Amino acid sequence: MQTIDFRYFPLAPNDVMLDLGCGEGRHCINAYLHENIISIGVDLSFRDLQTTMQKFEPFASMGQGKFYLQQVNADKLPFADASIDKIICSEVLEHIEDYSIVLAEIYRVLKPNGLVAISVPRYWPEKICWWLSDAYHQVQGGHIRIFKSKTLKQSLTNSGFILYKRHWAHALHVPYWWLKCLFWKSQDNSRLIKLYHRFLVWDLMQKPWLTKTLEKCLNPVIGKSVVMYFVKQ
Prior knowledge:
Rossmann fold
């Protein structure tokens, strides 16, 4: 499931692209397949990095660039100043206590006129999840804040970035998470949740025109993630 839209985040040959908080590798692997680049995925979780490598192996021969993974802390990136062309930070900042340090690190390592794509959960769908279940966000490594997009945009503007595109994503996933929160304690045995999950997997694999169009129409209203694209001044 890809949150960042590469139509608004164009990769060029020989770019060095950093996926900050890559999780299980959905964006750094897609970027590697997208263009002849150096794709670097970093995360604090070594387990997630192991999963990323396992997922990457079947695609290793399909790209022409290079692919690297490293365990790092987002508030102290092991890269030189102005050494990265593009940075993705997707569904990460809501987990971090002082995200301003991470924004400062992104600004430091990004080249002048470099691009950064950032996504976080949208305010009101996320607020309903918190309202339905405390356990949803009170797990280890869970969400510690709910962003308002205006606040996040201002934080990046204050850090020296200029917004050039914004959109929303994953509207069809919102009811799934509401159901999980509503039936949190019994979610593993919920037939309704299992059926909806099967629908989401089918939609992801088959990409039918009907659900693609439906989600495109619903994203501005109920999209689960807000995605913003910035350029470094």
